[in-house]
Design brief:
single chain, mainly beta, Immunoglobulin-like, 10-stranded mixed β-sheet, 1 helix, 13% helix, binds copper (II) ion
């Protein structure tokens, strides 16, 4: 009985050791869900896309950039509120730790769409491609919703 008990801490140490090893993520470790964007007014050149990004692997994923056919530019941005001022900063790279979920949402991180090539119409959708360090780019569907509906 005593022997079994002393074996347990050794097993715990061993597993925590392997957890700390640097592991490279693959595209299967990354889940992108709930992609959405607000419909835009006719002629408006700007929009924003939101989604949830989860790293289900034992690795750190690094988001580098975004791309979509429907806009001339797609930039990773973060809105920062300093007192009464609200400003946007470019995100150069975003680390997503093992097991972490990062929400891109209004008032926080978002993909800014500039030079829209078509109006974003509620009920339609478009494809957003996200590029990560060292792994294949991942596509996600962005559903366009009525402004004010969420
Ligand atoms: Cu922005």
């Amino acid at each position: 009985m005593h022997k079994i008990l002393t074996l347990i801490p050794a097993a715990v140490l061993l597993s925590s050791c392997t957890m700390e090893a640097e592991q490279v993520c693959s595209s299967e470790d990354i889940a992108i869900a709930d992609g959405w964007a607000r419909a835009t007014a006719e002629g408006s050149p700007m929009g924003a896309a939101y989604f949830t990004l989860s790293n289900t692997g034992d690795c750190t994923a690094v988001l580098l950039s975004a791309f979509t056919d429907i806009a001339g530019v797609a930039s990773l941005h973060e809105t920062r509120n300093t007192g009464t001022m609200s400003s946007m900063e470019a995100i150069e790279r975003l680390d997503i730790a093992a097991g972490e979920t990062v929400a891109f949402e209004p008032g926080g991180k978002h993909v800014m769409l500039g030079r829209l090539e078509k109006q974003l119409v509620a009920g339609e959708s478009f494809t957003l491609t996200l590029s990560f360090e060292g792994i294949d780019a991942i596509e996600t569907e962005i559903a366009i919703v009525e402004p004010g509906s969420r």
